[in-house]
Amino acid sequence: MSARRILLVDDEPHVLRVLRLALEREGYVVATAGDGHAALASMAEQLPDVLISDIQMDGMDGRTLCPLARATYPDHPFLILVMTSMTALDERAWARALANTEFLEKPLSPRQLVARLSRHFAALASTPGHPPEPVHAA
Amino acid sequence: MKLNRIGIILIACALAAITLVVALLVVRQQDSQAAQVRIKGVGLVKSLSTVPMALLTDNGKSGGLLAALLAYHDNGDFAYATIGDASGRTLAEVAGRGSMTPTVALPAGAANGFGERTLPASDGAGALREFYGPLGDRSMGTLFVRVGFNQPGYTVLAQDVSFLAVLALAMFLVVPVVYLVIKREMRPLAALSTQLRTLAAPTRRDDGDSGDMRELIANMQTYLTQAGARIAQLEQGALNTTADNRLLQYGSKKLNAALQSLPDGLLMLDPAGDVTFASGKIEPLLGIPMDRIVGQPVDSWCCDPALRGLLARYSGDVRDTARSHAVGFAPTNVEGRQLHASAQPLSGGHGTMSFGTLVVVRDVTREHLARQAGNDFVAHVSHELKSPLNVIGMYAEMLADSDEESLRVESLNVIQDEIERMNALVGNLLNVSKLETGSMSPERNRVRLDDLLRDAYDQALPRAEGKQLRVLLDLPRELEAVAIDKDLFRIALNNLLTNAIKYNRPGGSVTLAARNEDNEIVISVRDTGIGIAPADQGRIFDKFYRVSESDAPVKRGGHGLGLYLAAQIVELHHGRVVLDSEPGVGSTFSIHLKIVSAPAGAAVL
pLDDT tens, B512-548? Predict the structure, then answer.
């Protein structure tokens, strides 16, 4: 079984760099994109197991990217995590409408993200109908 | 007017009329009788004159023609008939009762023909009318026949007395009728008189019913005088009223004009909740024609539920007219507008009278947009502040978790950068806020630009060296002094230099230069960076505008305020910022400032 693939989308290079370091250290394969267009291009090459996206981005923003990713790959229900500093409730509504989509509050702690992902993959492994897959050791 | 006086006059008139009529009748009757007597006399004399003497007298025996004549004419007026000579001697005669034959000689010309004469009354006998003529039978000489009639006297009228009495009575009976009619006709006049007296002198107590025509006329005159005065007064009053009306109309028109020219739309509701007035501004505000609003039921024209709800509060049974309410809504018929409608009860006389409700409809689109922009601004700023915080938090965590030396150095550098970025953002935010509230008033002093530019160059040098950039300073030997606010200008200059360093390439250069040009001093900041695409050049000075860097290999932190602030500051100095850029080659920002010739003796700082 190949390593879990994570796609990071953010227009802040520092964020991409820190999260990539943190996730790679956990054994994930990490791809990064500066905005929605780059993310879709990356997805077209290889689909991720988890998509982590910022909302406010120049170019295509997260709000456009996430529904588009869902619509483009309906047979691939990967987890989408949306990073946002917006606390306004109406900013959440659109994400709630999407299946398998959750929020990550900014400021985001890489440690918490790592924990969140390992929980996710553990749950995925124990779910009937899915063959158990090896969880990468910390 | 005294009626009994009229009565007396009437009676007198009636009596006079009766007398006149009777007298006329009598005279007429006398005349007719006299005529009859004459016809009779003349006829008799003529017929007798042809008769032979023998037949007339029958020789002294009774039963001659004269005797027959007497018998025939015994109705009282026949006096006598004689046959005599010219001297008056009588040969034969007959006489009526109580009549004597006067022995008067005939006039001289009697023999020539027939004649007549009046014999005056004498010896207790009345006046006589005598007809005479010569007798045709001349057997006994020249003889004359004479016939005398009693002059018709008043006694002959005795037979008509009853008729005259009936006539007089009939005439007299007309008097009460006329009197009654007059009285009847006079009643309104009397009433008028009383009324006039009351009208003319209401205070004058006039006891006694002594009104007559004179008084009526006097009253009438008094009344007319007073009425004239009243009319003059009323006319004056009417004039005043007209003037007042005009004034009121003027005031009303003025008020209406004021209401119409109010920037807000007005609706007035009557106490029943129907619109009785709508100012002209309502139509463009609501997008509903005026004639559909005024006097029409609210439900028929109001297509905005919020406004309808507001108006409904002031109509119908569930009235809530004592308090004012307000509502904000976007009109259905007008695109992109935001309205604010406030309704308040119209009451006068310390709240005792209610004229209905006044609804003020205000266009709050700008306020709405400003509020929205403010919200956007806050959202944007909080995002801009949170982003570096987010990065700092992540790097701090990495710093704590990592033992790798290179990562620790990187973390510390990034954290420092982000702190600087936040600091610049906060500083610029404060300046923008000051600029926009107008509290930033430049203190313009004549400044030697050399020193200012050298300071800015010195400050930029260490930042540029950290990114392997060269910074060049290119100043002419002599530079005109300009009047600027030193502190503000330094901010503008620093922002331009920061941009030039940030968007540069390793090994590139930043050139700070100044030159005199006609009436201007041009300060330019030239970089050898990535340049700005033509599409972005027009918006580069907009607030919060940042060039998209999605395809840039290295991301640069920015907040979109630096260039905006620089341009605003230069504008505050009546200068302008000119951008000259070529993508991939570099950009040059030039500040053009007007040279102000120095007033004599002005201090140069």
Answer: 999 988 888 999 999 998 888 888 888 888 776 767 6
For residues B598 and B170, the model is more confident at B170
Q: How far is A24 from chain B (nearest CA, A)?
A: 13
Second-level CATH architecture of B365-440: Orthogonal Bundle (1.10)
Domains of chain B, by residue range, sit at 3-160, 212-257, 262-363, 365-440, 441-594
How far is Cα B12 from Cα B24, in angstroms, rounded to an integer? 18
User: Is the complex ipTM more than 0.95?
Assistant: no
Question: Position of tokens 């530019």?
Answer: B453
- Report the CATH superfamily, name and number, of domain B262-363: PAS domain (3.30.450.20)
Which fold would CATH assign to domain B3-160?
Beta-Lactamase (3.30.450)
Could you tell me the CA-to-CA distances from B586 to B284, B512, B522, B550, B582 in Å, in that order? Answer: 51, 14, 18, 19, 6
Cα–Cα distance for residue pair B405/B402, rounded to 1 Å: 8
Interface-testing mutation among B372, B389, B390, B418, with chain A (most A C-beta atoms within 10 A): B390
Asked whether the beta carbons of residue A110 and residue B394 sit closer than 8 angstroms, the reply is yes
| Closest Cα in chain A, distance from residue B380 (Å) | 10
Cα angle A132, A135, A136 (rounded to 5 degrees) comes to 155
A85/B390 CB distance under 8 A: yes
